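#onboarding

Welcome to the new folks! Below is a worked example of what a typical request in this channel looks like: someone posts a single protein sequence, and someone else replies with the predicted structure as tokens. Don't worry about understanding the tokens yet, we'll cover that in week two.

Example request:
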Amino acid sequence: MIAVGVMMLSAEPLGAFVLRHPTVKMLALSFLLLIGMSLVAEGVGHHVPKGYIYFAMGFSVLVEMLNLRAKKKGETPVALRAPYHPADQPGSADA
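Example response:
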């Protein structure tokens, strides 16, 4: 009963958070795919160590937390230079 009450109280704030952050929604969907694939693998007789699954999920959550924190601070992403093409240089034989 307590667990149901906690879920009912937290459903609205969690839903609003997921709606504000589409990358969290993608992460949750990828977790569902990961769990589904591990269940299919178990069903056909291939054992997948749970430590691998938990580590992958934990690492993904850590990366997403860092991503959300960087967005919150307003940090600009790394700017990449244009690719180098020798043909674009003045005096090249191909130009």
